[in-house]
Amino acid sequence: MTKNSSNQQDNSFKKRLGSSFGDVMDNTTKGFDFSKLGYLPRWLVLLFDLCVCLVSLFLTYFIVHNLSFDFNTTANNFSKLTIVLFINLVFFFVFRTYSGLIRHSSFIDAIKIFISSFATFGTLAMLNYGLFLFSGKKLFLLPELIIYFLISFSSLFLYRVVVKQVFEAYLLEGKKENVPRVLMYGFTPNAISAVAALKSQKPKQFEVVGFVDKDPKNSRKKIFDLPIYYLKKNVSVLLRKYNAEALILVDNELSKTERIQLVDNCIENGYRVFKAPIISELQNNQTEISVKNIQIEDLLARAPIVLDNISIVKQLRQKCILVTGGAGSIGSEIVRQIASYAPRKLIVLDQAETPLHQIYLELKDKFPELDYEVVVADVRNFNRVEQIFKTYDPEVVYHAAAYKHVPLMENNPCEAISTNILGTSLLADLSVKYKVKTFVMVSTDKAVNPSNVMGATKRVAEMYVQSLHYSANDKNSKATNFITTRFGNVLGSNGSVVPLFKKQIESGGPVTITHPDIIRYFMTIPEACSLVLEAGAMGEGGEIFIFDMGAPVKIIDLATKMIKLAGFIPNEDIDIEITGLRPGEKLYEELLSDKATTMPTYNKKIMIAKELTKDYDLVSNAVNEIIMLSEEGNNEKMIKKVKNLIPEFKSMNSTYVSLDQ
């Protein structure tokens, strides 16, 4: 026999034996390595079960035959043993008691063993009674069957418990790494379910040492043998007192203010904070929970946004909707939210092929009943965009396509003008031509008192659609309603500061900040897009809606908090580096110009900015000149023309500062 054929036979033997058990035997030089035992093959579990049944029979025989009364049966002991083991074996196969992993034995396995043992008892009892009716004699005594049932079931169950405990106590002990000791904040059904899931994880992610609760009456209770600690003041005191390293938030009834206070108290005292998911929201086939770091998005100091879903439904349901820039961070979220309102047809337009394909796959997976089209097109291409309007005849347009990065647009002003001004004007003109009911433009706070090319181009686009609205509606009362929505930075959008900081922290730093005093307003992407939908639904045309962005955030404070949330010490583990303001960058952003006022709406989070509206002919002529100059590549003349149209446009830290004089 060749060496190769011998190896093949060995491999075949190991496959029959069970791969994990074979690995234990697969080292003749080191001997039997019990630590490698991952699971026992099913045939071996079945053999162990039969051995347990055999021992149970001997115990039963010993007990029954030492009783003080006489008895007679028709069968000898060997025949009885054979019959009992055979019937046991049949029901082991029927209920597959041997198929589970012993170290993961659960209540379900106990039930299967009980049913199998009881079925064996019932079958033997019926066989016994049938023989008695036929011949007047019995194979077994009834006490014998009852005692065997009790002993066999208890033994089969207990040996699994013993094996499971031995495995956890000895085998996993050698492999276990040091896991952080944590307290669970909250004593709710979700918290209890989360602890149960964490305790069953292999390997362990955390060692739970107790619960934290605000109700003092629970402080004397225990669950899973874990104490419940009453929170009197600061949670960091409890963490220090009970030698815990982190806090896991599992109370889904916490207000945002309470959550922020807890997190701030923890990270200021060097403790990490995690959050557990809501157990009821896990997918059906998901058996383990994933506890993750608390994210900066969870700590926005703002009350939750309540939407007027009725007006949004009226705006979107059974309508044909076009979303430009639909593959971007804002546009894609608008697409997701619109899809949930069951439009008649949804058109997603973008020139970025790969992210557009990704949103296509997402819609296909999450909204299989939705009628949608993904269209690769450039909003600057008039003929291509007009073809889309002719083909689909959209009733509502959400215009989110734009160039948005300040330094890039400062260095490439012609592209900013081409996309942000030309693209917007083409879409707006086509919307009027093809009788679109509502046109919603997504703008930015950088359009207010602009200090850079990007913000200035967005302000020109705002002026164009607003003046076009009044011009078109003066001629036709049923013309397109043009609505502008203006908001600040969104957390997590492509290229925004939060993903940048996360990447810098993951790579070990430094975290770069342009100026120690720079502040920004922040909002999450879903929040911003929800308000865009509601503003579009409530708008009557010509308005510029601005959103309540909450309190401004100092960027250096944001970076410091993100470093601490990641478990590091700022300027020790991760450095914070000041790089200087970039071209066109302000220290602070504004949502309203000096000359503008605001009007409230029924939604406290949305206000209307009363901006002075210029004559459409004046704006249109200026826009045409700006576009012509951009096509010629004459940056200085082009920017000068933009500044003439927007007198408040004052460049900062830019090559175009000289044009302000």
Describe this structure as you would to a colleague.
The chain has 661 residues and is α/β, with parallel strands linked by helices. It folds into three domains: 42-175, no CATH class; 181-294, NAD(P)-binding Rossmann-like Domain (Rossmann fold); 309-490 and 524-548 and 591-655, NAD(P)-binding Rossmann-like Domain (Rossmann fold, 3-Layer(aba) Sandwich). Helix content is 48%, strand content 14%. The protein has 21 helices and 22 strands. The strands form five sheets. Strands 10-9-8-11-12-13-18-22-21 form a nine-stranded mixed β-sheet, with helices on both faces. A seven-stranded mixed β-sheet has the order 3-4-2-1-5-6-7, with helices on both faces. It has a two-stranded parallel sheet with strand order 14-17. A hairpin with a 5-residue loop joins strand 21 (597-600) and strand 22 (606-610). The N and C termini lie far apart (96 Å).
